[in-house]
Design brief:
With 324 residues, the chain is an alpha/beta fold. 36% of the residues lie in helices and 28% in strands. The chain is elongated and about 100 Å long. InterPro entries: HPr(Ser)_kin/Pase (IPR003755), Hpr_kin/Pase_C (IPR011104), Hpr_kin/Pase_Hpr_N (IPR011126), P-loop_NTPase (IPR027417), Ser_kin/Pase_Hpr-like_N_sf (IPR028979).
Length: 324
Amino acid sequence: MAGLSIQELLAEKEAGLDLELLAGERGLDKRIQVPRIQKPGLAIAGYTTNLHPDRIQVLGSTELSYLEQLDPQVADRHLRGLCELDVSCFIITKGQIPPRLLIDCAEQYAIPLLRSQHQSSRFISLITQFLEERLLPSTTVHGVLVDILGVGVLLLGKSGIGKSECALDLVLKGHKLVADDVVKIRMKLPAVLFGEGNDLLHYHMEIRGLGIINIRHLFGVAATRERKKIDLAIELVEWRDEAEFDRLGLEEMRYEILGLAIPLLKIPVRPGRNITTIVEVAARNQLLKEMGYHSAREFQDRLEKRMAETAWLHAHSIIGDNLE
């Protein structure tokens, strides 16, 4: 089953959530499916129509103080009505002490009750960012991801075409390796793709005839980075004389990952072509395109303008001869 269990959320340390379990241990296997949270103030007041039980329910000082001020029988009825919806979990912020009634309901209905020392606004920001990274769609791609002048370039192509060798040459030129062979790609809101390396293969690269090398150990920490936004995909393909490749750069191809399309270039490979330099220039050209400067289109506009001027001069010359 996809998603994130409450047990995994409780064990998370790197996100700085600072969570502890207060009650409801039997429900730690419940799973979170969506990266959004909810504050159940209206549900505590008895209105549960718009409650989303699959979301984490965050209880701040306002919700807890209101719960304590309610008549005990009313509070018990409202809280049990909330718990009967089988919510994923409750999280109390600001290190507050929960009412006994809340602890008893969490135990009875096996709903994990957690607590964080963070202020509500800070915790909501942290948990939302963490859940977005863990729960948004992800996939893996066979390729190499490099950071070239701030442009995330995903090198694609069949096995043995020279992706790793090209990436190694780029590292020698001062660029950064993100991932080799297996690239883990996650989508981040609103519509951005980020790539990172496999946990086992991180910072390592396979070079045929040389074996596995550690880029960070060989070239230092500045030669690698943890993750990078993917801006451009480049597919290395074998050169074929009968094949037609884009000569002007006007053809705009796209490569789709997780429903998002990024620019794609196909570069033919054959002996004598400096693929590393071509890839580096492609990254520089992508930077210009993002700044609104498209070299191929500018050339096409100049060419069409020159052709129009030549046609006008030719027509004027013919008309002038006839008039004489």
